[in-house]
Amino acid sequence: MSAMTATPLPPRTVPVAYCPGVHDAALPPDLVDAYFAAVDWSQAILGRIEVAAAWGAPSVVARYTIGGVAAHAVQGVLWLEQLLEEAEPVGGRTVGVGEFYGMNRVDGEPVEDALADSLRETAESLAAKGVPAVAAACAAARTELAGLLDGASAGRAVPVLRVSGGRVALRDYLRTRVLEVVVHGDDVACSVDGLRVPDPPVPSVEVCLGVCVDLAQARVGGLAALRAFTRAERAVPGALRVL
C-alpha cells in the first residue's frame, strides 16, 4: 500500500489447520458482499469528473499522482483476479494478517523500497492510459471476481509478496483487500480539493476496522491495544496506527 519503508513484525507461524474445516468452507457471503460494496464505492469515486480533471496532479500519498493512487487501488482488484485464476500454491509457510500485512506500517521518512517502487511505477503506467482505461479494467475484473469468489474456499491458500514463501488463507487476504480499496478510495477523494463523496459502505468499514484491530494486536499486544482505546495515560504512542 505504501511507497515507504515497512516496519516488519516478528514472524508468527499460523498452523495450516488453525480453524478446523475452514479450508473446505466457502467464504462468508457478508465478507464477499463487503468487498464488492467497497469496490463499487471506489469505482463511483473514479467516475467523478473532478477526479478526471485532477488525474495528473499530486495526491495525498507521497510520490503518487491522483491517477496513480486510483490505478493502484484498481491494480489490487486485478491482482486478486489473477491470484484466483492461478493454481492454488502448495507448500510454503502459512502466515497471519499481522505478519504479512503488518509490514505495511510506515515509520519515519520515506526511503527506497523496491517492492513499493515497483507497485508505484506499475500504477502510474496504468494511470497514464487514462481514466476510461482504468475504469474499464476495474469493471472487467469485478465481473470476473463475481464468479471466482462465488463459492470459493475460505481457506484457499494465497501467496503474499512481503513474506518469502508465505501464504495466507483467502478469507484473511480478502479482508485486507477491503481495507486496501477503502483506504485508497479515501486517498483519491481527499486528494481532490472540494470533492465530497459518500462515506464508504458500513459493512466494508466494519471489515476494515476488524483488520486494523487485528494488526494493532499483532504489533503491540491485546492489552496495549485495549489501553490505546480506553486509557490515554497508559497508551503506547501510535499503538492504533497500522499503516
Q: What is the count of helical runs?
A: 9
Structural class: mainly alpha
Rounded to the nearest angstrom, the distance between the terminal CA atoms is 8 Å
Strand content is: under 5%
- Taken from the alpha-carbon principal axes, the silhouette is globular
Task: Examine the secondary-structure arrangement and name the CATH architecture.
Answer: Up-down Bundle
What's the CATH superfamily, by name? dinb family like domain
Could you explain how this protein is built, in words?
The protein is built from nine helices and three strands. With 243 residues, it is mostly helical. The protein has a single domain, classed as dinb family like domain (Four Helix Bundle (Hemerythrin (Met), subunit A)). It has a three-stranded mixed beta sheet. Strand 2 and strand 3 (166-169) form a beta hairpin. It is globular and about 45 Å long.
Describe the secondary structure blueprint for this structure.
Blueprint: H1 29-46, H2 49-53, H3 66-85, E1 93-94, H4 97-100, H5 114-127, H6 131-149, E2 157-159, E3 166-169, H7 170-191, H8 202-220, H9 222-230
Parallel strand pairs: 1-3
Antiparallel strand pairs: 2-3
Name the features.
mainly alpha; 4% strand; disordered N terminus; Four Helix Bundle (Hemerythrin (Met), subunit A); 9 helices; 243 residues; 3-stranded mixed sheet; 3 strands
Give a nutshell description of this structure:
This protein has helices at residues 29-46, 49-53, 66-85, 97-100, 114-127, 131-149, 170-191, 202-220, 222-230; strands at residues 93-94, 157-159, 166-169.
